[in-house]
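debug: dumping io for the single-chain case to check the tokenizer round-trip. Nothing else runs in this session.
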Amino acid sequence: MNRRHFLSLMGAAPAFAAAGVSGAAAQGLLQTGDLSETARPVWEAWKSAYLQPDGRVVDGLQHNASHSEGQGYGAVLATEFNDHEAFRRILDWTENRLSVRGDGLLAWRFLPGETNSVPDINNASDGDLFYAWALVRASRRFNDRTYLTRAMQTAQSLAARCIAPNRANADEVLFLPAAQGFVHNDRIVFNPSYVMPLALREVAAATGVTELALAAQNAEAILLRLAQAGPVPDWVQVTARGMTPAPDFSANAGYEAMRVPLYLVWSGLNRHPAVGQMQRIYERTVQPGVPVPTVLEPVSGTVLEASNDPGYRALAALISCAGSAGQFGSLMPPFDPTQPYYPATLQMFAMIAANQVTPECVPI
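debug: decoded output
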């Protein structure tokens, strides 16, 4: 896609224009450099669509609930776009509503309008990881070491409560989905998409909690083994005999697992086999005007669900480009703030990864 055609698409996106994001501003998002300067209107569009004035990130498809994942995602974006005011709002709401466990980890879900808005105080380790990562980056971005102190509390609790020995390999550890509920007498349930290697390593380096860096290193090897059979699935169980589908959890490569290649590319691991598996899927399925696969049967690669949301197409464009040697330019679509929160956020992440880690995948 040449840049002129890309801008013509921007001009043809009514929702994008209605959000006040001009073609020039959208083009700026896809240029290397400081996104807080080049792509401010795009960030403002994301905020207007998904961030409430009180700092709550809303998932409209989940009955307007909020999750620690969304709060962590929003906080990372706020630091990326140098928006201290938005970061403070997200931080304050999260601390007041989800930081109720007493151990530095966050309750995983807030249900608006309910008498008990936080009925389950179990955490979600990916939400905590992104929250800690945002705090680490904010401590540098906004020159405030109190954020690093809070990140250290989260990091220490993640290491103490959300890392366990890998029963299939005594030399490895697993990054657990949560502090409770996933370790059983005979098995551990593992979610590959909860691992973000770059975040784990940056948090470990900033806080000194080296167990997180070890979890990242081991996870990359685990993802490599999972990718030998096909796209990495949403969930697996780990026993002394190895990794198999987890009963009562999704065995497909779906809305959760699609983050695996994104996180690997963002971490600079473009050649990881898990990236290659999804690249091959996208090569044979992604066509102009055809919905992008969102749920796959991992063994056969059969497409079970697909979507026209531009966030999923942006993700496919990043993976297709990043996993290809010698390719320059990706086919990322314009950002549309009328799409649901999840694909919109994945699109923001894909754009950031292209801008900062794989500049060869910036649309040209």
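debug: round-trip ok. DSSP finds 15 helices and nine strands in the chain.
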